[in-house]
Write a structure and sequence with these properties.
Elements: E1 2-8, H1 29-40, E2 41-42, E3 45-46, E4 50-56, E5 60-65, H2 76-89, E6 99-102, E7 105-108, H3 112-120, E8 124-134, E9 144-149, H4 156-165, E10 168-171, H5 179-192
Parallel strand pairs: 1-4, 1-9, 8-9, 8-10
Antiparallel strand pairs: 2-3, 4-5, 5-7, 6-7
């Protein structure tokens, strides 16, 4: 299982946003949709052994499971509509209890710290950061959990939380990349290292 935890600093936590304005009125939800695309989609296939947790504004988490996903296409609008459905279901989530909105997509009132605690119990946390050690030097853990930020840097508080939980701080290359491109590079690294592709 490969996991990706993506922070959405300005992403909406309520479903009242237009699908035609993902980069503006929806708080750069387009960035998160592209991350979901890169995490799951292959050419004519989907990566089943992948989990993505989108942490929205440090208060809501949408979890997507590759083995269960249905109705998802690789375009941003389709992905955003499924995320909006998850936010519409959020009112049914009591405390940190998850609620399934559509097959393979769950929503809960969980902040970044809660997500990291759960993820660290399931695998090895790897912070993806442009100032980290080289990805090529990483001995891939059996159950990696890659943590990355959207179009904004990690905040000071997020950095402190990661320091207490992450086992590695890794950079995918000498130039800063978009979050979704970073996920693609990580997948390629693990694929060529002999890991299970799906």
């Amino acid at each position: 299982m490969r996991q990706f935890v993506v922070l959405g600093h300005t992403a909406p936590t309520e479903p009242e946003f237009e699908l035609d304005d993902l980069a503006g009125g929806a708080g750069r939800l387009d960035v998160l949709c592209r991350c979901v695309n890169s995490a799951f989609f292959l050419s004519h296939a989907i990566r089943e052994s992948v989990r993505v947790s989108l942490v929205l504004a440090d208060e809501v988490t949408i979890r997507l499971e590759g083995t269960e996903l249905r109705y998802m296409n690789p375009d941003e609008r389709n992905i955003a509509s499924l995320l909006r459905q998850a936010l519409e279901t959020r009112s049914e989530a009591i405390g940190q209890t998850e609620v399934e909105s559509t097959p393979g997509i769950y929503v809960a009132n969980r902040d970044f710290t809660s997500v990291l605690k759960r993820a660290s119990a399931e695998g090895t946390l790897v912070q993806l950061h442009e100032d980290g050690d080289a990805l090529a030097d990483l001995d891939p853990p059996e159950h990696p959990v890659f943590v990355l930020s959207d179009h904004q840097d990690f905040t000071e508080t997020e950095g402190e939380v990661l320091t207490g939980h992450a086992d590695h701080r890794i950079s995918v290359g000498p130039e800063p990349l978009h979050a979704d491109h970073t996920i693609s590079v990580v997948h390629n690294f693990l694929d060529t290292d002999g890991y299970t592709r799906y």
